[in-house]
Amino acid sequence: MGDRILVAMSGGVDSSVAAALLLEQGHDVTGVTLKLWGGESDSGCCSVADVEDARRVAAQLDIPHYVFNLTDTFDDTVVEPYVREHEAGHTPNPCVECNRSIKFGALFQRAEALGFDAVATGHHARVTAEPHGAYALRRGTDAAKDQSYVLYMLGQRELARTRFPVGMLTKAQVREHAAGLGLRTAAKAESMDVCFITRGGRRTFLADRIDARAGSVVDVSGATLGVHDGIEAFTIGQRRGLGVATGERRYVVDVDARTATITLGERTDLLRDAVALRDLTYVDEPPADRADLFAQTRAHGTPVASTLDGTTVRFATPQSRVAPGQVVALYAGDALVGGGIVT
Amino acid sequence: MSSPPNAGSNAGPNANSNAGVTYLDHAATTPVRPEAVAAMTPFLGGTFGNPSGAHSAARAAKTALEDARDEIAALLGAEPGEVVFTAGGTEADNLAVKGAARRVRAAGGGDAVVTTAFEHKGVLASCDRLAAEGFRVTRLAVPATGVVDPDAIAAAVDLRTALVSVMLVNNEVGTIQPLDEIVRRVREQAPAVLVHTDAVQAVPWIDVADAAAAVDLVAISAHKFGGPKGTGALVVRGGVALEPLLEGGGQERGLRSGTSNVAGAVAMAAALRVTCAERAADVARIAALRDRLLDGLLAAVPEAFENGDRAAKVAGNAHIGFHGVEAETLLVALDHAGVCAAAGSSCSSGATEPSHVLAAMGITSDDALASIRLSLGYASTEHDVDVALAVIPRAVEQLRHAGKAA
């Protein structure tokens, strides 16, 4: 008999196939769907329809299926910090916090308590056992779908008990496998947005939770260009919806929550040769003096040759400024080394 | 349920469809009694007539429907004309609460409703609807014993009160409410007030004909006592006027339009007949099983606690918490070991929602989230208790150990 594995099934095709593959490999598989959001959600990852899809797939695979209600934990560790970060003028990544606190936090703990050998998800990433006895976290085989960036916080403890069964498949292969098994999720569309934000979008969601503070829009010399309704509408690097006509292409180059001031500048004003990180974590050992590191500053951004100097990442060539709250992940080849959050 | 050597005579073939499973969730639903299956089978086959018709096929169905109504009425202490068939307990509660309150107000009567905060959602959501329609709704908290204080109900009632709704037995903690006393105290305050009781959880355990004799509206649901799902009834005492929820062909004296569920009504009557005949023996047998289960768990598991006053509970209810354990995780561990139990109330997604019942009783959120309901029923056996006593302490110990290690 294989291992006892708890598969987080979102109701999407990737986690459906993840469960099917583990079964085919001879494991003892149990499915679980997380109810994360108690508020309004018509397209998010925790809608009743998605739970139902997961349940039906589990029934088709003839595996037990449960629903864990983690709404309170999700609210405390993902939604509330998301709102507070925006209030501070930062640009948080809630999917990263969900992976940290929910999937590889609360769910992971419950799986361990219940005696499961491992937790599996439908993420496109790979865990490999290395010759020196450690585990590596590598990019998914489908470069366009690679999700290792949002899993940067995983360490040896988690990786030893984590499976990403679809990580070595392309998305097309995943769908093909689902279709071959006749799974109802085979052709299901992907969710792309933040799961707890639905109709009305981010601005409406935040406006309901933050008292908007109007302020000034200035240029890099400090000269006032106009006014704005609230800093939550702005993020570093943004160039649409600035509400100020300057005649030239302008970008948000700074958001100062303290004074509610938005600074606009040219593209060159955004360039930085380093970025400081907080809460750095490493997949294994800290990569002291490694010369082969590449930094990735967005979920599907191009990696840039870099070095790590304490908690500061230095780019070989200047890069567009990354907003505070965003994640910078460090890679060596296709293996994730670690990462942190921009200060 | 798990085919023990000394399986009770009630554990018919359909009670064993989940072989190897120890079923301790009778408050959620019960296995359908063989007598109910036998009674309804002809109406799923050859006897298919619509009882509202004017020919021989219709007459056969009509006769069966009215025989079922007669029998249910007699067993509930009502007149046949007072029994309204519905599609279950939730519909019966909705019809009683919304139907009575709206009718009273429309007739120039009161516009207030008094209920408790630990009612079934069928009552609470109906009250929310009434509040949105301008009714004054009072939802009273309940003591930690799980027994409503009649004085508190009486104190909330005034001459503008249209309806009082208090359940006969609570669905989560199993406590029996002092309905006679409540009705007496309420009528002292306001003689004309209508009283409804959700008796859905009471039928297997207490004689509803007696316990709800003074009540105007009584809701029951067949699947809680060995009948099929999707069938229930509301007793509407003579002279009590309701506004219907469903309008159409005017079936059920105009209170519930829609073609009658003949098979369901016939099966409900059969299940009720067997339940009433065997009730006294079942209550004695199951109370002993429940006490052995609860006392065994309290003795075997440190830091375990009971919710609700056991002396006030129906025989089948055990509600127990284990400090330091998440009930939701415990249910998974129990299910893996073949034990079916429940916690909180299930929402449409299948997730466990925090219990509004325990919250209404003033039980802390931490204690509520550590508590499970084990509900025994007519199909429960000594073997079920043996299995539960072997499985539950071990599962709690495992989860607590893991929690400390994390």
How would you sum up this structure, described in words?
- The complex is a heterodimer of chains A (343) and B (406).
- Chain A is an alpha/beta fold.
- Helices cover 25% and strands 29% of the residues of chain A.
- In chain A, the strands form 4 sheets. Chain A has a 6-stranded antiparallel β-barrel with strand order 12-15-14-13-16-17.
- In chain B, helix 7 links the parallel strand 6 (194-198) and strand 7 (217-221).
- Residues 1-17 of chain B have low confidence and may be disordered.
- The A-B interface holds A 30, 35, 46, 48, 51-52, 55, 64, 66-69, 109-110, 112-115 and B 326, 328-329, 331-333, 335-336, 348-353, 398-399, 402-403, 406.
- SSE class of chain A: alpha/beta
Query: Could you tell me the radius of gyration of chain A in angstroms?
Result: 21 Å
The chain-level structural class of chain B is alpha/beta
Taking the alpha carbons of the first and last residues of chain A, their distance comes to: 47 Å
Q: What is the overall silhouette of chain A?
A: globular
- Termini distance of chain B? 36 Å
- Sheet having the most strands of chain B: 7 strands, mixed
Percentage of β-strand residues of chain A? 25-35%
